[in-house]
Amino acid sequence: MTWCLKTAALLRPTTGVFRNATAFAQLPRYFSQTPRTLIDEPGKFTERSSSYMNSILKDSDSRSHNRRSSAADRFGSDMISPMGINGNMQLPKMGPTAGRSIPVMNGDLSGAINQMKAAMSKNNVKHDWRAQRFHERPGLKRKRLRRERHRARFKEGFKRMVNVIIGMKAKGY
């Protein structure tokens, strides 16, 4: 209750702007659990904090953007160039057949076919193909989706109940 009252006192708006700008600036500090420092005191935001920010800005301007001296400087460099450092990397295949293509490694055609079957069953391609074969009225679609959701929920509940019964049998009930 006191938190709401104090917050309301700090955030009382007048003409669309906070009446006390320093109170609004201290709001995060007000609810913080860490001890207060000199920077947190009102009117103390002068030389120490601003000189620190000036030194950070000065250091960022003075760095050469072309040199790469450490791993920290190279962080994200792979995002700059899609070819990477040596330029030998190939871009992934894009297009309508990108998700339906499986590479055949070392002439292992049967392994590639099995991998394709697994990907197709995981992505429910056969079900989608049957569903898209004919037009379905919106009302029938709602009924079908509700029926499928109910079956999935019932299946999960049934599995859970079977596991409870198996656990009870194991405990000797």
From TrEMBL:
Region (Disordered): 57-77
Biological process (GO), any one: mitochondrial translational initiation
GO cellular component: mitochondrial small ribosomal subunit
Domain of life: Eukaryota
GO MF term list: structural constituent of ribosome
Keyword Ribonucleoprotein: yes
Record keywords, A-Z: Ribonucleoprotein, Ribosomal protein
Keyword Ribonucleoprotein: yes
Family from the record: Belongs to the bacterial ribosomal protein bS21 family.
NCBIfam families: S21p
PANTHER family recorded: 37S RIBOSOMAL PROTEIN MRP21, MITOCHONDRIAL, SMALL RIBOSOMAL SUBUNIT PROTEIN BS21M
Name of this protein: Ribosomal protein S21
Organism of origin: Ascobolus immersus RN42
